[in-house]
Structure formats: C-alpha cells, structure tokens
Amino acid sequence: MSKAFLYAAQFELPRIPVGTSFKALVDWLESSIGPVFDFITLVLVSAVSGLTYALTFLPELVMVLLFTALALWLRSWRFALFSLIGFGLIASMREFHAAMETLSLVLVASVIAVLIGVPLGILAARNSRVRMVVRPVLDLMQTMPAFVYLIPAIIFFNIGETPGVVATVIFSLPPAVRLTELGIRQVDKEVVEAGEAFGAPNRKILTGIQLPLAMPSIMAGINQVIMLSLSMVVIAGMVGAPGLGTDIYQAVTRVQLDLGFEAGLSVVILAVYLDRITAVLSDRSPVARAERKAAPTG
Predict the structure, then answer these.
(1) What is the DSSP annotation of 162-219?
(2) How far is the first Cα of the chain from the last one, in angstroms, to the nearest whole number?
(3) DSSP string, 218-239
(4) Which of 92, 224, 247, 286 has its CA 20 to 30 A from that of 120?
(5) Distance CA 141, CA 172 (A)
(6) pLDDT tens-digit series, residues 153-170
(7) Are the C-beta atoms of 220 and 246 separated by less than 8 Å?
(8) Nearest to residue 121, comparing CAs of 214, 209, 52?
(9) Rounded Cα distance, 213 and 259, in Å
(10) Distance (Å, rounded) from C-alpha 287 to C-alpha 295?
(11) pTM for the full predicted model
C-alpha cells in the first residue's frame, strides 16, 4: 500500500498542449481567411466612425439638451434633470467626445450581440440539441477572463476599434441568449397549446404568443448586454479602442488620479443613463402594460 502510494505520488500526468493547439487554430484562421477579417474590420470601423461622427456633429450643449429631452420623453423630469447635470458635467470635464466614442462602441457591439443572441436563444428554447451545444459554450464565454478575449482579437484585427468591438460582443453575448431562452421557456404551456389547438403555425405561435410574452425577459437580457458592453469597452481601451477606456488606461499607467476619476465618473453617468433608458423600453412592452392593468388597485 505504501509502495503504491509512493508510486502514485511520483507519477506526473503528461502535459496536454491545449494552449498550443488553440494558437495553431488561430494562426490557421489568420492565414486562411484573412480577407474575411479585413472585411469585418472595414464594416466595424465604418459603423463606429459613422456613429461617432453623428453623435459629435452637433455642438456639445445641443447634444446635452437632446439627451435631456429624450430622458424627459421616456421617463420623468427627475431623470431629465439628472441627464442635464450628468452630461453637462461630462462636457465640462472635457470628456464628452470620448464619452460619445464609448457610446458608439457600446451601441455597435450591443446591436451585434442582440442580433446574434436573441435568435440563438430562440433556437435554444425550441430545440434541446441546440441548447445542449450552446450552454457549455456560454459557460465558457462567461467564465473566461475578459482579457483573454483581447489576445486573439488583436491577432485577427490588429489594434483599434475592431478588436474592442469583437471582444465586447463575445463578452456581452451570453445574457441575450440565456434570458431569451428563459423567457420563451417560461411562457405558459397552456397558452401555447391553445394557439396550437386553433391551428396556428409554429411561426405564428412564436411571433404572436411566445415572443410578446417573453419580451420582459428579452429586454432584461438586452439591458445586461449594454451594461456588460460598457464594462468591456473600458477594458478594450488597452488595445487602442478609442473613448473613455483609453483615458482610464492612460490614467492607470501614468498614475493620473484626476484624469482617471473624471473618465470613471463619465462611465458611471453613461451607464446609469443607458440602464434607465433600456428599463423604460421594457416597462412599455405590451406584457408589462397588461400586468399593470391587471394589478389590483388601491
């Protein structure tokens, strides 16, 4: 027994070169489909640059008033007052242009993540085999350290906006898939069976019953996508993605407390504004309005 224990203690498992294999896969992809990555870079840079140009075309004070008017229209005068003070503070700290660059990156990455995540969540909810494949991939995406995404993104797309957007999409995608799947699965089966009993096709059941009833959960997923995108865009400043992330990274490397605090405060204001705006869209869904009407008064 003691000899077997000593033998087991001296035994060393052979090294499995998982990282080397992954690097070989990345190198093969880079050499095989390089023009595809160039096309993706062109599309993403054009989208981010165009949106940034649109958000910075008008004077800063006009944009502050537009953000305030949107807040007043969607929520309340209190949130409009917060928006006026918040964006006015960002402009006075000379961080408005960087904040608009960050907002452009967040919006582009969030739209891509939602366009991929919501259909994937629908497929996972309606097909158990798809769900079995998707779930471990989502677990890997959510538990892998965020900095790891930046390494292959730099290899494929060099530095700049593109690796930042790609890494942000990968980082923020899982909530859109999971909450879309959860929302559709939580739809009352009796309601779905009633639709089937009236002869409705699967497409009509999906668009007329399941998606409207699952909309609060889907909107919660979109909200999470935007919040995670904002946090990842700051990290993406390390690879040259423009915006507040670059300012924060420079402040850390140069130990500039004032610059870091101003850029960080701008991120917080932007995050609160985006969170409240997306929450309003969820509150105004048909299901949310029906639940408010059905709730007992008094």
Answers:
(1) HHHHHHHHHHHHHHHHHHHHHHHHTS-HHHHHHHHHTT--HHHHIIIIIHHHHHHHHH
(2) 76
(3) HHHHHHHHHHHHHHHHHHHGGG
(4) 286
(5) 9
(6) 777 777 777 888 888 888
(7) no
(8) 214
(9) 45
(10) 12
(11) 0.83
